[in-house]
Amino acid sequence: MEVCYRHPGRETGVSCSNCGRPICTDCMTTTSVGMRCPECARERTRVVRGTGPVHAPTLTYVLIGISVAVAVGSSLSGANAGTGLGGGTVISDGALSRATIHDGDLWRLVTAGFIHAGFLHLAFNMYVLYVLGNMLEPAVGRVRFGIIYFVSLLSGSFGALLLQPTGFTVGASGAIFGLAGAAVVILRSRGVALMESGLALFIGINLLLTFTISGISIGGHLGGLVGGALAALVLYELVPRARIPQAAAYLLVGAIGAISVAGSIVVSAG
Hints:
By secondary structure, the protein is mainly α.
């Protein structure tokens, strides 16, 4: 992967739409003709489309592939594709609940995010992940995207356990809400208004569905949203203002995930 021409230590999949040089999120400026580097953003010359490579959101495709593979494997093992793509042993071995975390099955904080309860559940989550991943991963780079995704997943698991004392929780929606929250923060840091991005409508509609449709994990959605937004705030607001080293920033974001794991253990202990 290319690195920012102004910050050689930062990988990026975004290029200036005028000169084609690779730029990180701290250097890019949003314009009506795409992202521009600081030098080109000050120019008023005719725009020439950059020739730099646009990297595919590979991690997004990998995450989608894992969820689909889990669903296919579950179906082949006998689960009902209409209502239980995550049925049978997939649920019993990978779904999230207070009881299983209390028993020490901490891996469920992650595995539950790759299990889905039916084809519609899988299809909707994977479509939204595809859209947000294609928007966010090339802009922030594979490493930051992965960090934000898994911190959001852990935060969503914590939220689900916090508000759901009994029963199982599955689905990638907590992590997906985290990506949406992170996208809001990142676009705001680049000067893009919330209403202009369309994310306000997306988050608003999905929060409405969260609170009005039974069977949806309210805690999972809210926890993921908060976790993703906090991770992005550290990476794109705190780091530039406080001049925190990149490694320290990653540790701070990792601490959000660690707190979510610790919180999950505490709420499941009773």
